[in-house]
Amino acid sequence: MVDAILASVGADDDMVYSKSSSLQTWLLGYELTDTIIVFCKDAIHFLASKKKIEFLKQIDTVKDEEIKIKLLVREKVSSYLSCIPSCKSISIQ
Question: How many degrees, rounded to 5, is the angle at CA 7 between CA 20 and CA 48?
Fold first, then answer.
């Protein structure tokens, strides 16, 4: 049994096709580079820059009793390693 599915999209000009960017485009209609999405049993967590979180707030307004949307702002640095504290706050249930 899988507890969570993670999809991350970086900013790589050499990558023409990726499953993560295709998933984002299919779900959101946009490709959001430098974004991590974690699909859990009862919530979907988005970890992205402040600007992208502002864009994603429109899906946070949907009130669904079964699936919760969690929006986490990452600090602007050049490495995903700085996202580890934010990722640790994601509870997988």
Answer: 105
